[in-house]
Amino acid sequence: MVVASRRRGKKWWAAALWLAVASVALPVCAAPAGQDAATVARLASGIAWHRGGTVLQATALREGVVRIRIGRDGKLPEDASWAALAAARAASAPVSAVEQGDAVGFATGALTVTVARATGAVSVRDSAGHVLLRDLGAPFFAAPATGEGADGAQGFALVQAIPDDAHYFGLGDKFGPLDRLGRSYAMWNTDSYAYREGQDPLYKDIPFFIGYTGGVYWGLFVDNTWRLSFDFGHAVPGQLRIAAPGGPIDYYVMAGPDAKAVERRYAWLTGTPAMPPRWALGFQQSRWGYKTEADLRGVVERLRKERIPADAVWMDIDYQDHFRPFTVDAKAFPHFRQMVADFAAQGMHTVAITDLHVADLPHAGYAPYDEGMAQDRFVKQADGKPYVAPVWPGPTLFPEFTQAATRAWWGTLYRRFALEDGIAGFWNDMNEPAIFETASKTMPLDNRHRIDEPGFAPRTASHGEIHNVFGMLNHRATYEGLLAFKPGQRPFVMTRASYAGGQRYGVTWSGDNVSSWNHLKLTVPMLTSLGLGGFTFAGADIGGFAGIASPELLTRWYELAMFTPIARSHADPQSRPQEPWADGPQHEAIRRRYIEARYRLLPYNYALAEEAARTGVPMMRPLFMEFPQARIDGAPMDLNFTNDSEFMWGRALLVAPPPAPESPGAYQVILPPGGWYDYWSGRRLDAMRSLMTWGVGGQLIQGRDMDATTPHMVMVEPKLDQLPVYVRAGSIIPHQPPVQSTDEVPGGPLALDVYPGPDCEGVVYDDDGRSFGYRQGAYSRVALTCDLAADGRVTLRIGRQEGAYRPWWKRLRVVVHGLGKPPRGATLDGAAVDRIAYDAQAGTAAVEVPVQEAGGVLVIEPEAK
Ligand code: MIG
């Protein structure tokens, strides 16, 4: 350690090396600094503990969220954050004092925090007594680093106990199984072209996970932007180690008891995801390599001609003049503005890439450079000179996004594109930041950032501290800039790099994935993990970015992607074409069918998006989020090879892609308790066809019937054109008639598909799809419930419309599933409804009724006995 620091003359590196050593031989019972007696003081909503130079403060922000900060030299870390909202950090909740032998602490209604008097070791329990977090010793501090760029950085490690039954989920874009137990991860935003399973770190730093123990879920968010690491019992079984080479010890524990409650609390703390415009839920076509206006016009023309519903086309770096952000290659795109307008007239939104690196181009009339230099907007090296490094345009400079004023300036660069050219959305790529021709792939860690930000003390900070928030601040600058131009409109901005809280500024995607079966399979845990970390509005490049997708791979990818939040086809220039029509009419027909299915589901999907933006509960959910009690032993359902590719698309739909997608073989779909319908046929699954159920400890028991309390399995062997999707019994799903874009007003009624079962519910939500008017009441929400009586009578209750928005539909087509016989009749608010269409094959009865503002009660009467 000392040797390394002398040789490099930079203790910063020493801290990193120390960390590597510490992770092997960390003394678990390291004594806190100093030998003085510990003192404890009670605060209005928590306690303060100190001993020697070490100070610890634990406070309740609200009943289910506590914050713990630990500092050295008698000082708590600065109360500032890029992620945790100021209002949340300023909140406080009433607590009651707790004394427990050698420990002292406090309790809220949901959490009890205690601190060991002697060591400062923290424990957190829930109200039922489950130990969620338990330090195995005091925090372990490294010696302060000195030298250039070190900023006095001091590393630390926290070591906590892993309960025997624990599992961990989250951390954002980690590429492997959903469960993090037994693995270790680094948090360091990294350009990761063609990454592989297990490769780590990738593009984003979301230091938040959901833990499971004893039948409950809880959350831990460590708000530290440095190169943090999480080791979930990999180095030492039974020990969860959280370490960083610098920065604050500042973390938040969130209560459950279920994962949705944890998500809501995390969203309260770090913000809900930005509500995207509705068109973002449409199908989007992109490719690196649409080189000319003719290429792009050809794509749009073909989408419309082939009647493939689509909402957006994307322009990658090819549209720019010499890859210079905020320029257009006028030779390749001679009628740029007209092209964008022509697309818009067809309901096609144009999204343009605008990378953060500004070409180092003096005396050329290049405004981003000229203004940026004149206003001193660029990141500097340790020696004070502007930092210049090669990326797409050649030598480039990097805006100092850590300054509010520089972010505001960056926003103004969008004026022409956003206001004059009518570009609907933007893409912030390369913002890890990625640097070419550099082994580290990024800036030197001793680059000097100049923090000048409300809520922060102005100071300089090393790139080692700022690296992981740089991309998020680029995203934020773009989002807020667009908002300043059009305050009433929801911006659409997609970023590659981000940090916790970045969900407030728009969408993301999983970067440069690969055209392989393994990537297709792991898209599910990748996107569900991003969703757990707040980034529910995420997608993976359909077909894979790098490499050549076979027609079969591409078709299966289209199928799955239609049940993910952002469905964008994208590929690199070496790839085969990956547009839906690329492999002839048979493949195209399948792909079109799935894209159409997504558009039919738009009312359901849009309600999910709105729920996510309002509450933080993601659109794509692990099974444990909907069915926390599904297994007899209470453990999460999503742990086994057989079912870790399954997921819930909202509350109602279970999507079960092949666990080994390359194999044409049969596999078992594990269905949580409660009854299911096949989404495609609409038929109720035959209870007796359930083959097995899970017993205690996850073992399989042969021959049990499908019932309401145990999970069950169905064997499937989906052909190329089949993706198994199931509807949870007890769901009401809205569907709309076919359209070619989300801007098109559908013709005909809104369908309400009713799948009777336990706790039957659904919701219909609508608003104008683009403004923030919904925040002032310009929305329409109708709650739906249904029940199935013992005699077979089905009652659908349609609630009174909430909100002042008038949706497009005037009539409802109610389709009740699971009816073995034709019904005798139907009534709406007691009056007979004529014309019931019964479909014996599908087992459905359909009636059409007018929309009534006050709602109504629709009853489908069973056949008389
Ligand atoms: O160095 O803009 O992940 O989606 O097509 C590659 C070109 C830069 C990386 C992105 C990818 C995009 C590509 N970009």
Account of the 3D structure:
By secondary structure, the protein is an alpha+beta fold. It folds into 4 domains: about 1-270, glycosyl hydrolase (family 31) (Immunoglobulin-like), CATH 2.60.40; about 285-510, TIM Barrel (Alpha-Beta Barrel), CATH 3.20.20; about 620-725, Immunoglobulin-like, CATH 2.60.40; about 750-860, Immunoglobulin-like, CATH 2.60.40. It has an 8-stranded antiparallel β-sheet. The chain has an 8-stranded parallel β-sheet with strand order 32-31-29-26-22-21-20-33, covered by helices on one side. Strand 3 (about 55-60) and strand 4 form a beta hairpin. It is globular. Mean pLDDT is about 90; it is low at about 1-35 and about 690-705. Ligand MIG binds next to loops.
Task: Give the topology, please.
Elements: H1 2-8, H2 11-25, E1 39-43, E2 46-51, E3 54-62, E4 65-71, H3 86-90, E5 96-100, E6 103-107, E7 111-116, E8 122-126, E9 131-134, E10 140-141, E11 156-161, E12 167-170, E13 184-186, E14 204-205, E15 208-213, E16 216-222, E17 229-232, E18 239-244, E19 249-254, H4 259-270, E20 283-285, H5 293-305, E21 312-315, H6 336-345, E22 349-353, E23 358-359, H7 367-374, E24 389-391, E25 394-397, H8 404-412, H9 415-420, E26 425-428, E27 448-451, E28 459-462, H10 463-485, E29 493-495, E30 498-499, E31 507-509, H11 517-532, E32 538-539, H12 551-561, E33 567-569, H13 585-600, H14 602-615, E34 620-621, H15 623-626, E35 647-649, E36 653-655, E37 667-671, E38 676-678, E39 692-694, E40 700-702, E41 712-716, E42 725-728, E43 731-735, E44 750-755, E45 761-767, E46 779-788, E47 794-798, E48 811-816, E49 825-828, E50 831-832, E51 837-839, E52 844-850, E53 856-861
Parallel strand pairs: 14-30, 20-21, 20-33, 21-22, 22-26, 26-29, 29-31, 31-32, 44-48
Antiparallel strand pairs: 1-2, 2-3, 3-4, 4-19, 5-6, 6-7, 7-8, 8-9, 10-11, 11-18, 12-15, 13-17, 15-16, 16-19, 17-18, 23-25, 24-25, 27-28, 34-35, 35-36, 36-42, 37-41, 38-42, 39-40, 43-44, 45-46, 46-47, 47-53, 48-52, 49-50, 49-53, 51-52
The chain binds ligand MIG.
